[in-house]
Amino acid sequence: MLRLVEDIRTVREKDPAARGALEILLCYPGLHALWWHRVAHPLWLWRIPLLPRLLSHLARFFTGVEIHPGATIGRRVFIDHGMGVVIGETAEIRDDCLIYQGVTLGGTSVSRGKRHPTLEEHVVIGSGAKVLGNIVIGHHSRVGSGSVVVKSAPPRSTIVGIPGRVLEEQAEEGNRPGHELEHNRIPDPTARAITALHEQVRELAREISDLRQQPVFVAVPRGLTAEQVEQAFRSMSDSAEESGDSGAQPDPGAGI
User: Fold this and answer.
1) pTM of structure
2) Domain membership flag for residue 253
3) 17 and 116 fall within a common domain
4) 82 with 141, same domain?
5) I need a surface site. Which of 57, 70, 218, 236 has the fewest CB within 10 A?
6) 3-state secondary structure string, the chain?
7) How many separate domains does the chain show?
8) pLDDT tens digits, residue range 111-136?
9) What pLDDT, on a 0 to 100 scale, did the predictor assign at position 168?
């Protein structure tokens, strides 16, 4: 009974769409999948044949969430929306983690040992992200939506991209309540890198022009004008600056 109350409180804290206890009990498939797992996991540990996998299979049929009965899941874990979530046999999810739809905690080996990831406390995995292999995601980290993580990350990391790259965040970002759900504020390293390269090319062109005493010439792809190219890079530069702007207003619906 205490676990049930704890589950309801967890959903209320992590999902602003939750309206009442009865709605949470009846309409949250991610929560239902965790209940099925709590029955199947002890049976798996007791080495009872077939039944744990059968329960896991039924849970996937009814909830859209596939959790292997061998996976270890801590307290106050919340799977939001849930559809398409896959959690492998040797995966370990510690307390207070948040997982969105379409997430895979998968393996990269055919060995029978530890081959799935470990999520430490207070980790957030964005929708569609894939965390693969026997790696550890440090506590209070977040993985951006659609990322593919194949290497371990230290605590309080922000991981984005394919393959996942660890980004540095300002200290005040990590201390601001609710920042882990604001995926719209995750920096875009690709846009920043391209913008930096563009600025370097422009600077080199200026230097060459000074040496040759000729007008600056910028190569323009076929079908585009110089103004269109300049506008595209200016938009990417603005996007990179906005993603790292700590003064932006938080979006309570981001991360879903």
Assistant:
1) 0.72
2) no
3) yes
4) yes
5) 218
6) CHHHHHHHHHHHHHCCCCCCHHHHHHHCHHHHHHHHHHHHHHHHHCCCCCHHHHHHHHHHHHHCCEECCCCEECCCCEECCCCCCEECCCCEECCCCEECCCCEEECCCCCCCCCCCEECCCCEECCCCEEECCCEECCCCEECCCCEECCCECCCCEEECCCCEEECCCHHHHHCCCHHHCHHHCCCHHHHHHHHHHHHHHHHHHHHHHHHCCCCCCCCCCCCCHHHHHHHHHHHHHHHHHHCCCCCCCCCCCCC
7) 2
8) 888 999 999 999 999 999 999 999 99
9) 65
Return d(Cα 37, Cα 135) in angstroms, integer.
Answer: 23
d(CA 7, CA 24): 9
> Is 69 within 8 Å of 96 (Cβ atoms)?
no
Is the Cβ–Cβ distance between 233 and 195 less than 8 Å?
yes
Domain of residue 218 covers 189-243
Claim to verify: residue 144 and residue 41 sit in the same structural domain: yes
Encode pLDDT of 79-90 as tens digits: 998 899 999 999
- Residues 121, 28 within the same domain: yes
